[in-house]
Amino acid sequence: MAKCLNCGMSTTVRGQVDLKDGEICIPCFREFGFRPSEAGKMKNVSFFDIKDGAEKYDLKTTE
User: Fold this and answer.
1) Which of 3, 24, 62, 63 has the most CB atoms at less than 10 Å from its CB?
2) Residue 10: strand pairing partners
3) Distance CA 26, CA 63 (A)
4) Over the stretch 34-45, which tens digit does the pLDDT of each residue have?
5) What is the pLDDT of residue 26?
6) Is-above-0.70 flag for pTM?
7) Is the CB of residue 3 less than 8 Å from the CB of residue 11?
8) How many CA atoms lie within 13 A of 55 on its CB side?
9) CA atoms within 13 A on the CB side of 57
């Protein structure tokens, strides 16, 4: 059973976003400011890249 890297809850029931270093649940992904439709773009992204939120991640990727 996979657990969310952020909250530690099961991603089986809550839905999951696959990241480079694990999974996070959809509620945590939304809490970070991302839309569920962006989940497919996250396979090569680390949890530590997105944990500060969508605004910081966007700034980081445009530099």
Assistant:
1) 24
2) 3
3) 27
4) 999 999 989 999
5) 96
6) yes
7) yes
8) 1
9) 17
Residues 5-59 pLDDT 10s: 999 999 999 999 999 999 999 999 999 999 999 999 899 999 999 999 988 887 5
Residue 57: predicted pLDDT: 83
Query: Phi then psi for 24, rounded to 5 degrees?
Result: -130, 155
Tell me the residue type at 61. T
In angstroms, the CA 62 to CA 15 distance is 29
Closest by Cα among 46, 9, 53, 12 to 31: 53
CA distance 11 to 61: 27
The Cα 58–Cα 5 span in angstroms is: 21
